[in-house]
Design a protein that fits this description.
alpha/beta; Rossmann fold; seven-stranded parallel beta sheet; 8 helices; 14% strand; globular
Length: 259
């Protein structure tokens, strides 16, 4: 089990799903955690139950990021880990909506999934460079298998998650070239039992069963299984691993779609 004792982490999108599981896992592994979410009620309850701090945050609001990072540093004295987990779907293919609705959906999903992730990386790096004892840290950005096999039914989500993969590599190599001991990696989850999927099931009964069949394991991932991968990448167990991707998809991307 990765040891996160003494580490300080910010985890966005903590109110449910992978974010909630990651807060619980990090606290169990010894980290001090600040969880953030736009859903104040659920996020605050989750953090209180897990033993973490909570702050309301819309990750797409770039002006809030320095404040969120400062809160973690003020509370715990440093910042070692950022998990950029907050995200949303647009639910629209390229020709599904009129221009006004299409571009509104596109702008919103990219603001949250991509710009929010970039802004988080930028603010975290500034804090990690100033850590007591010298520059150090780990950033884990959460993408999706749609970054590798995009959905025709969600152009914004697919594009944003594909961009997160490349963003992470750019961040990783910039930190390496500037001789900062700050790593940046991506976790690519497959179909996972999350609130987003459960809500979609209400609109399209049978969706969860159909999505589960996209994995040869014929099931959805438990969010805790993805959180385990995030904890590994955030820990000191993999100091030479940066600019990399860890796929947690139950072999979804490893099999020909015809089989």
């Amino acid at each position: 089990m990765p040891d996160l004792s003494g580490k300080v982490a910010i985890i966005t999108g903590c109110a449910s799903g992978i974010g909630a599981a990651t807060v619980r896992r990090f606290v169990a592994d010894g980290a001090q955690v600040l969880g953030t979410d736009v859903n104040e009620a659920n996020g605050a309850a989750l953090c209180a139950e897990a033993g973490a701090l909570f702050a309301v945050q819309d990750v797409s609001d770039r002006s809030l990021w320095p404040q969120i990072v400062a809160r973690a540093v003020e509370a715990f004295g440093r910042l070692d880990i950022l998990v950029n987990n907050a995200g949303m779907v647009s639910g629209a293919g390229i020709g599904d909506l009129d221009d006004k609705a299409m571009f509104a959906a596109w702008d919103q999903v990219l603001a949250v999934n991509l710009t929010g992730t970039m802004a988080g990386c930028r603010a975290a790096i500034a804090a990690m460079r100033a850590n007591p004892g010298g520059s150090a840290g780990a950033i884990v950005n959460i993408a999706s298998t749609t970054a590798m096999a995009p959905l025709p039914t969600d152009v914004g989500y697919s594009a944003s998650k594909g961009a997160v993969r490349v963003l992470s590599k750019s961040v990783a190599t910039w930190c390496a070239q500037h001789k900062l001991d700050i790593r940046c990696n991506t976790v690519i989850p497959g179909a996972t039992q999350t609130g987003i999927l459960e809500a979609a099931e209400q609109q399209a009964p049978g969706l969860i069963a159909a999505v589960a069949k996209t994995s040869p394991l014929n099931r959805l991932a438990d969010p805790a299984e993805t959180a385990a991968a995030i904890a590994f990448l955030a820990s000191d167990e993999c100091p030479f691993m940066t600019g990399a991707e860890m796929v947690v998809d139950g072999a979804m991307m490893a099999i020909h779609p015809g089989f």
